[in-house]
Amino acid sequence: ASIKRLGEPLVLINFNNGCYGWIKMLQKLHYGGRYFSVDFDEGIDYVTVAQGFGLRGFRVQHVQELRSAIREALQADEPAFIDVPTAYEGEEVPPVDSWLRTVEQT
Question: Which of 65, 105, 56, 99 is nearest to 84 (CA)?
Answer without folding.
Answer: 65
